[in-house]
């Protein structure tokens, strides 16, 4: 068990931290990770937890604010730790995200010169179409990741206006559940609340099995259990980057691995002869079946990518890999290296597993064209990365 302590330590110098958006303080007996700081600042910090020479603390007073420090837009920032970067100017957030990817590349011994500037999100706030609230005594909010204290949140600045409307409606009324997922389309008047709420004072409909949203004008059905990109305009930009790199001329076979509800398969299908979309989740495949209605060149395969990718040896002209945070299974990478498509795009939400997987692909028959970070998640340290690769001729 961590020890909870109100200890305050004054005048510590904040150093560059690990890649979780936190700064670091090195004391004689312990190293602390610090929320709310910027490297180079001197600050007073309040200790949350410490154990075995490690711990977490939060900035409570800054003595020499960085030029990049801005007032957080949200009154909950710090109590709520969902956002880690609200105290940092948006251009500097982008620089930090660039550095996070660069650090992972350097750790893995990869050439970081391919990493371009981070593509900013036009909306710095109000961009998210999906919220997962924790509930305590009927109140919706988030759990502070260090103190584990529940923080009631009446308005979340990074969620879209639809989610905030539902939040206002449901605040204080959700005692029948501990978690609540609210998804609200960015481009349609469609929403989903799970689980179903049954209390008499709740007038809003809940328990929807799915909702719909538009990406590049295409209607996608998304079930409660299915993944969908949380920042629509950035997802559209990402699809554009992938399309440009794959440079399809209509005759190719594209494999979309980790396909979700068919997002990239659908958006790129007009450019190919055949699209094979592989996805393990039954819910996402069910959605994808609806999403490809009327498109006759997409085949859906419900399977783990590692169990089927080798079946397409010699058939793949182009490949999209968009795995979850843990990255691609080693056997997927081995299979791709054995039978390389001409063009490959790896979309990653975790820079560390990306670097690990790139090491294998670039040690094989691929070369990097460009690594393009896309800011899907302003105000947080998270970053999406689109890696554009091609087969090295003769390899
Ligand atoms: C980051 S999401 C990407 C989804 C989709 N490409 C999109 O942009 O909406 C990763 C997807 O991979 C699926 N997945 C996770 N592990 C998998 C595996 N081993 N094989 C196939 N799909 C998997 C998840 O269910 C999820 O839908």
Q: What's the layout of helices and strands?
A:
Blueprint: E1 3-4, E2 8-13, E3 23-26, E4 31-35, E5 42-51, E6 54-62, H1 90-107, E7 130-136, E8 139-143, E9 150-152, H2 161-170, E10 179-184, E11 191-194, E12 210-215, E13 218-223, H3 232-246, E14 253-257, H4 263-268, E15 274-279, H5 282-291, E16 298-302, H6 305-308, E17 318-321, H7 330-338, E18 343-348, H8 351-363, E19 366-374, E20 384-391
Describe it for me?
There is one protein chain. With 395 residues, this protein is an alpha+beta fold. It has three domains: 3-69, OB fold (Dihydrolipoamide Acetyltransferase, E2P) (Beta Barrel), CATH 2.40.50; 92-122 and 229-391, Vaccinia Virus protein VP39 (Rossmann fold), CATH 3.40.50.150; 130-223, OB fold (Dihydrolipoamide Acetyltransferase, E2P) (Beta Barrel), CATH 2.40.50. It is 22% helix and 29% strand. The protein has helices at 90-107, 161-170, 232-246, 263-268, 282-291, 305-308, 330-338, 351-363; strands at 3-4, 8-13, 23-26, 31-35, 42-51, 54-62, 130-136, 139-143, 150-152, 179-184, 191-194, 210-215, 218-223, 253-257, 274-279, 298-302, 318-321, 343-348, 366-374, 384-391. The strands form four sheets. It has a seven-stranded mixed β-sheet with strand order 16-15-14-17-18-20-19, with helices on both faces. Strands 1, 2, 3, 4, 5 and 6 form a six-stranded mixed β-sheet that branches. It has a five-stranded antiparallel β-sheet with strand order 9-8-7-10-11, covered by helices on one side. A hairpin with a 2-residue loop joins strand 7 and strand 8 (139-143). It is globular and about 65 Å long. The mean pLDDT is 95. S-adenosylmethionine binds at residues 227-229, 258-260, 263-264, 278-281, 284, 304-306, 322-324. InterPro entries: MeTrfase_TrmA_AS (IPR030390), MeTrfase_TrmA_CS (IPR030391), NA-bd_OB-fold (IPR012340), SAM-dependent_MTases_sf (IPR029063), U5_MeTrfase_fam (IPR010280). Belongs to the class I-like SAM-binding methyltransferase superfamily. RNA M5U methyltransferase family.
